[in-house]
Design a protein that fits this description.
Helix 5 (74-82) packs parallel to helix 7 and helix 16 runs antiparallel to helix 17. The radius of gyration is 26 Å and the shape is globular. Strand 4 (535-537) and strand 5 form a beta hairpin. It has 630 residues and is α+β, with helices and mostly antiparallel strands. It has 31 helices and 9 strands. The chain has helices at residues 10-16, 22-35, 41-54, 58-71, 74-82, 88-103, 109-125, 129-141, 144-147, 151-157, 167-180, 186-192, 198-208, 214-223, 229-241, 248-259, 265-278, 280-289, 296-308, 312-321, 331-350, 354-373, 377-386, 390-393, 397-405, 414-426, 433-439, 445-462, 482-486, 513-524, 612-617, and strands spanning 493-498, 501-507, 531-532, 535-537, 541-544, 573-576, 588-591, 604-610, 623-629. The protein has a 9-stranded antiparallel beta sheet with strand order 3-9-1-2-8-6-7-5-4.
């Protein structure tokens, strides 16, 4: 029921909180938290609070608090702050629950102030790593206006002796202080940038990048030589993005590094983008001399540098690259489109005469239109966003997107449909109502949901009476049977042999049987072999498994249902990627750090048991060479 998420089950589930089995009560609380929607928050809060008063078991109490975080209203937050827990587990659950409630923006300023002081006291008064993580997480996920009063106190705690041994809690404080954006925090951020854990140094680079004073710029320039590539690449990106003064010596050093044959391609591309600001001719001459570009990801990264070059031949090159397809992927083409869009934004901003602006529209609109008509999911998704500009809307971009909706394929184009429907709502394109009404009956639940949501929004805009929604019967499209599930071994392990090393995973078929079965089926067929990690978000996840396109837009021609479990998304957790509930395919991800906002929203079906150092070493473009199933 936690995965089905049917709000009509609230009352039947509430009765099961009286079951004599602790395991049943724990799972019932989890299901209640998962099954509530905004319109049922008050009902769920009453059920959970009433039962907590009579519940004596700590495991069940922890599950009830967790459920309140997902579906509790403002009363639940006031109640949580008033509790005087002795149990560390209950304190951790309370801090995470408060984070989730406050994030929804339902607290008054007075209630939010109490919650922030409560979480700050938990940090100050407790030494455990999990409780400090949970309490600091509150300040990451809630609006800064909620906790301005304790911001300076958080800055003081950032570099205390204990906090420097807790990288995930320290990272949370850095991310929170970065949002505060106060120059008075620069010194503590620079001090934190010297700790041993790369995740903390990475967050420091991102936080310091908001400031332009000399001490910050010098520190970021120094971190471009960090021994961890995540940190180094983040520092190089900061140098590229920010208008800091890069001295001649740094540019000379950058050119030397680019010419070294053993330089990592990601580092080389990052330096070339920086050089492009100062010496674009040098970059173009160097590219002319190369007989072979290292890979498509390298060229895609270079498009950032092309975007800032003012040379006419660069525009023509980007136009050509926007039509490039390498190994059945459009990675380079999408990057080129983004670079062209950056140029469009500059020209749109700087054009003061209407006739000049009209000329520019006539130059760029055919490029977006060509991308839309390509039918490629990545190009369409990118171009649809750009076509929401009012100047392109006048050219009829909405009608082009409506025509494209008539060609979508179930179980293949769900992300494209999500992009198109989102764009049509932004354009207030009420002429899309008939096709959206038709696509509500798609066999693909993801497509049906996206079209249904867009339909409701456009009907509101048009002032059209909405038909009562009809509950859809769940569709199971995966090629697996109960016999396949029964054949799964409970103690299931597998090893990903990657180009960065080996990662061994323990799988959880008892908790997420279809996800485990699906993962193993792809692995045994060799479909993951030679497939890259197409998405790496430092201090968050590494993501792979797109054997069809290798760029994050591909997968099998079926979906599997979401299987939400109690397993938290802590460091090393293996999860299924999705474009929404019940849209999982073949893509999976592994966590760098704990991310509580994923708990109960994505399928967790395994855990790294050896090779976390390899998870840390994986960068975009590293590949899974083979999978050994044990």
């Amino acid at each position: 029921m936690a995965s089905v998420q049917d709000t009509t089950m609230l009352k039947p589930l509430a009765k099961m909180l009286l079951d004599t089995s602790v395991a049943v009560r724990v799972n019932t609380a989890f299901a209640l938290g998962q099954s509530s929607a905004m319109q049922t928050y008050t009902v769920a809060t009453v059920i959970l609070l009433n039962h907590y008063a009579q519940e004596k078991n700590e495991r069940v109490r922890e599950a009830l608090i967790d459920a309140l975080g997902k579906c509790g209203d403002a009363r639940a937050a006031e109640w949580l702050v008033s509790l005087k827990h002795k149990s560390v587990k209950l304190k951790i659950a309370s801090a995470l629950a408060l984070s989730r409630i406050a994030q929804r923006g339902i607290l008054s300023q007075a209630q939010a102030d109490k919650a922030s002081k409560y979480c700050y006291q938990l940090i100050r008064d407790n030494k455990g790593s999990l409780i400090r993580f949970a309490a600091t997480y509150f300040f990451v996920r809630t609006p800064i206006t909620v906790w301005t009063g304790v911001a300076d106190s958080l800055a003081v705690l950032l570099n205390d002796k204990l906090m420097r041994t807790l990288p995930e809690a320290q990272s949370n404080i850095i991310r929170a202080l970065a949002r505060a954006n106060k120059p008075t925090y620069i010194k503590v951020l620079i001090d934190a940038s010297t700790v041993s854990d790369w995740r903390v140094r990475y967050e420091c680079v991102r936080a310091l990048s908001r400031f332009t004073i000399d001490s910050v710029q010098n520190r970021i320039l120094a971190m471009t030589s960090d021994n961890n590539l995540h940190v180094q690449l983040a520092a190089l990106r900061s140098v590229f993005d920010n208008p800091m003064v890069v001295h001649d010596e740094f540019i000379h050093q950058a050119k030397t590094i680019c010419l070294r044959p053993l330089t990592d391609w990601r580092v080389r591309a990052s330096y070339l983008n920086i050089i492009a600001r100062r010496d674009p001719n040098w970059v173009l001459v160097l590219m002319d001399r190369w007989r072979e570009i290292p890979n498509s990801e390298f060229m895609a990264t270079l498009c950032d540098g092309f975007a800032i070059m003012q040379k006419s031949e660069v525009w023509a090159m980007l136009d050509s690259l926007s039509q490039t397809r390498v190994n059945n992927t459009t990675i380079v083409a999408v990057a080129a489109l983004r670079a062209l869009h950056s140029k469009w934004q500059v020209e749109r901003r700087d054009s003061t005469q209407w006739y000049r602006l009209s000329e520019i529209v006539n130059v760029y609109y055919p490029i977006w239109l060509r991308a839309l008509k390509s039918g490629d999911i990545a190009l369409v998704s990118t171009a649809a966003e750009y076509c929401t500009d009012s100047l392109f809307a006048q050219k009829g971009s909405a009608n082009e997107m409506i025509a494209l909706l008539r060609t979508v394929r179930p179980f293949t184009d769900v992300e494209m449909v999500q992009s198109l429907t989102g764009a049509l709502v932004k354009l207030r394109a009420v002429q899309a109502i008939p096709i959206l009404d038709s696509l509500q009956n798609s066999p693909d639940d993801g497509i049906a949901l996206a079209c249904g949501n867009a339909l409701s929004a456009l009907q509101n805009i048009a002032g059209v009476a909405q038909k009562p929604s009809i509950a859809r019967k769940a569709r199971y499209t995966a090629p697996y049977t109960m016999n396949d599930i029964r054949a799964l071994a409970l103690n299931q392990e597998c090893t990903l042999q990657t180009s960065a090393g080996a990662i061994t995973l323990k799988l959880f078929p008892d908790l997420a049987p279809i996800s485990v079965l699906n993962f193993l089926a792809h692995a045994r067929r060799g479909l993951f072999n030679d497939v890259p990690f197409h998405r790496v978000v430092s201090n968050f996840v590494i993501q792979g498994g797109d054997y069809e396109r290798r760029d994050g837009y591909g997968g099998p021609r079926f979906t599997i249902p979401s299987e939400f479990t109690h397993i938290p998304f802590t460091r090393g957790t293996l999860g299924m990627a999705s474009a929404g509930k019940d849209t999982e395919g073949s893509q999976y991800f592994i966590m760098h750090s704990y991310a509580p906002h994923l708990d109960g929203r994505y399928t967790a079906f395994g855990q790294v048991i050896t090779g976390l150092d390899v998870v840390d070493a994986v960068l975009q473009g590293h590949k899974v060479l083979s999978v050994v199933v044990k």
